[in-house]
Amino acid sequence: KQWYQRRVAITAGGRCCPKDKSIKKFIIRNIVEAAALRDIGDQSVYKSYILPKLYVKLHYCVSCAIHSKVVRNRSREDRRIRTPPVRGIPGRQRQQPAQKANK
User: Fold this and answer.
1) CA–CA separation, 7 and 15 (whole Å)
2) Cα–Cα dist 60/20, whole Å
3) 3-state secondary structure of 37
4) How far apart are CA 77 and CA 68, in angstroms?
5) pLDDT (tens place) for every residue of the chain, 103 residues total
6) Close Cβ partners of 12 (under 8 Å, ≥ 6 residues apart)
7) Distance of CA 16 to CAs 3, 31, 45, 56, 59, Å?
8) Cα dihedral 10, 16, 20, 26 in deg (nearest 10)
9) pTM of the complete model
10) Going by C-beta distance under 8 Å and a sequence separation of 6 or more, which residues neighbour residue 37?
11) Which residues, in sequence order, are bridge partners of residue 26?
């Protein structure tokens, strides 16, 4: 088959969905929560030890992504727009373009 895509198991339920149709979400977080991070650092023998992070790629089918509020439904005209929305980097201010001075 020419347009066949490999199927992936969905994270939420275990059902299968084509890989290109699934909604993908990549999560990077600390293994230890922020509240316990300081306590572990105080009790550790190694002062400069950095705890590893947890890297997880989640796959959602369309119905599971809408149900768990990963994506929202859009109007019929907006569904035709396929460009991904502009993402802001958390913790950074967006730079405003410089305005031209009127002479």
Assistant:
1) 10
2) 11
3) helix
4) 23
5) 567 889 999 988 888 999 988 999 999 999 998 888 888 888 888 888 888 899 999 999 999 999 999 888 889 999 899 888 787 776 666 555 555 555 5
6) 60, 61, 64, 67, 68
7) 17, 28, 46, 18, 10
8) 10
9) 0.65
10) 30, 51
11) 57
Locate tokens 């802001």: which residue? 88
Residues in the chain: 103
Six-digit token pair at 94? 């967006």
Angle value at C-alpha 39, between 37 and 41, nearest 5 degrees: 70
Q: What is the Rg, in whole angstroms, of the alpha carbon atoms belonging to the chain?
A: 21
Residue 55, sorted as left (phi over 0), alpha (psi -120 to 50) or beta, turns out to be: beta
